[in-house]
Amino acid sequence: MKILFLDHDGVICLSTEWGSRFKNKEGFDSLFDRFNDKAIKVLNQIIEETDCEIVISSDWRFHCTLEQMKELYKIRGIKKSPIDYTRNDLDWKLFKDVHPGNELEMTRCFEIQDWLKEHPEVTHWVAVDDMDLSYLSNFVQTPRSKEGIKQCGIKEKILKFLK
């Protein structure tokens, strides 16, 4: 199984979309900022080319159930719905002496590693995030929040890990 650990803000929900949820106040879809249409197109191309599954590592996982997130992906035109969330109950402080770094970034790294340990069937994986998760071996950063996953060269880097 191929897994894409996906953050939202700065990856498919670009900074140009932040706050958009306040403009449209109807329906479940309005609880979250919009995803960028071009970023969705790139994500769908990655899904088509690799048949990867999506596991949400984004903080958005704290605000709705997995079933609701699946519905949101469907509404927004993403070809596959997420299959899972990473855990959100790991305490990075337990590891801070061994792995110094930013608490939020290191927590996300440990959550991804924990998910992988629980799923030995994974053959290929990549984490995509705007934060620095370079502690992980299979990581692609989207450093430009206005471009995210559609930034030149990002798709190709992701594909290298998933093919």
Tell me about this structure.
The chain is an alpha/beta fold. It has one domain: Rossmann fold (3-Layer(aba) Sandwich), CATH 3.40.50. It has four helices and five strands, in the order βαβαβαββα. The protein has helices spanning 37-50, 66-75, 103-118, 154-162; strands at residues 2-6, 53-56, 84-85, 124-129, 139-141. Strands 3-2-1-4-5 form a five-stranded parallel beta sheet, covered by helices on one side. Helix 1 links the parallel strand 1 (2-6) and strand 2 (53-56). The longest helix is centred in the last third of the chain and has 16 residues, at 103-118. It is globular and about 40 Å long. The termini are close together. The mean pLDDT is 87.
Q: Portion of residues in helices?
A: 25-40%
- Largest sheet features: 5 strands, parallel
Look at the helices and sheets and give the structural class. Answer: alpha/beta
CATH architecture assignment: 3-Layer(aba) Sandwich
What count of helical segments does DSSP give? 4
Kindly state the mean pLDDT as a whole number? 87
Shape: globular
| β-strand number | 5
Radius of gyration: 15 Å
User: What is the CATH class designation?
Assistant: Alpha Beta
CATH fold category name = Rossmann fold
- How far do the termini sit from each other? 11 Å
Beta-strand residue percentage: 5-15%
Strand order of the largest sheet: 3-2-1-4-5
Low-confidence stretches: none
Count of separate structural domains: 1
H/E series? EHEHEHEEH
